[in-house]
Amino acid sequence: MGDLSAMHKLFVDTIRSTCQPDYHPDQIDVWTLSVENKDRWQEALTHQYFLVAEIQDTMVGFASLEQGDYLDFMYVHHDYLRKGIADRLYQALEQEATGLGKTSITSNVSKTARPFFEKKGFHVVKENKHLIRGIEITNYRMIKEL
């Protein structure tokens, strides 16, 4: 599946290039290893609302909404950051949630992405500490009321 391999590449490249200021190399390594969980990715692609952003037939971002109110994935290629792609992906997901009658959107957000989500009106509900292959990674449970 071409789209899945392109998503995996974008996912890994984005984390490796943009999250370095916020996460230790060991944390980045275990985070990016999640591409090996083929069942998780297939489940997400099958059951979530996915959007893909392309420029000249090249995937430059993707985002997903699970059960209409949980933003699961949002990644933009590092060469296309701060060009409005994440804004457009997020707005489309929010419109989908609103159209489904949802009253809020939640997400587990990285340290790197937290400022973006705060600008969109999200606030932190709790700090999460995940232990993955013996490495602790912090992210934030955030919510936005619609």
Record keyword descriptors for this entry.
5 helices; single chain; six-stranded mixed sheet; alpha+beta; globular; 146 residues
Question: Tell me about the biggest sheet?
Answer: 6 strands, mixed
- Overall outline: globular
Mean pLDDT: 96
Q: Calculate the terminal CA-CA distance, rounded to whole Å.
A: 35 Å
Task: Kindly state the percentage of residues in helix.
Answer: 25-40%
Q: Which ranges are low-confidence, i.e. pLDDT below 50, for 5 or more consecutive residues?
A: none
- The beta-strand count equals 6
**Strand residue percentage:** 25-35%
Order the strands across the largest sheet as they lie in space.
Answer: 1-2-3-4-6-5
Number of helices: 5
Describe, in short, the structure shown:
The protein has 146 residues and is of the alpha+beta class. It has helices at residues 2-18, 25-32, 38-47, 85-99, 114-119; strands at residues 49-55, 58-66, 70-76, 104-110, 123-132, 135-145.
Q: What would you note in describing this structure?
A:
The relative contact order is 0.15. A six-stranded mixed sheet has the order 1-2-3-4-6-5, sandwiched between helices. α1 (2-18) runs antiparallel to α2 (25-32). It is 38% helix and 35% strand. The chain has 146 residues and is an alpha+beta fold. It has helices at residues 2-18, 25-32, 38-47, 85-99, 114-119, and strands at residues 49-55, 58-66, 70-76, 104-110, 123-132, 135-145. The mean pLDDT is 96. The N and C termini lie far apart (35 Å).
